[in-house]
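Final report, closing paragraph on structural work. Over the funding period we assembled a curated collection of sequence-structure pairs, and we close with a single example.
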Amino acid sequence: MVPGPRDGSEGAQAHTMTVRFLTPDLELMNRVARREDGAWSELATRFERRIRQQCRRVVGAGPDLEDAVQNVFVQILVCADRFQGRGSLDGWILRVARWTALELRYGRRDRFPAGLAPDELPAPQVDDPHVLPPNVHRLDAVCREAVVLHYWMGMTVPETAEHLECSPNTVKSRLKRSLRLLRDELDAEAA
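Its predicted structure, as stored:
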């Protein structure tokens, strides 16, 4: 934020403007969106292995793997102009990969319309006990949100922290506390 002029008179307000710098990742995605020569191959070379790994985790090594990888690249191309550089490009692309692979695996195309960037995907209904795995809905809202973002939506700890506007250590504490509570609850049910 860059402060604007102030004249000190009554009723004067501070004016601010956001300054956004063009990072190499943002520049690459802008080049991909403009369909510039070499941009797509640079992106594909940089991310293909990790996209394939992410898709393999969701759909397995079977025949759907290649379809999932291709769908991810199509989705990235369609959404390239929507990457705004607020988070890391790596995290953004891996979220696209995860959501796209989940669509393929579970056939939920009606839940995740084509052409949406990961930031625009609908958030899971964290208060609905029928959507979340058993016992997760019993966690307090703060812990439940961290668990859903990290374990269910596949965000890294830093991405979860950025989303929740807290430190990565706070996210780790919430996750650790949540897992301990869930483990204790499952042990009590088994006894």
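The chain has two domains: 20-120, 136-186. The radius of gyration is 20 Å. We thank the funder for supporting this effort.
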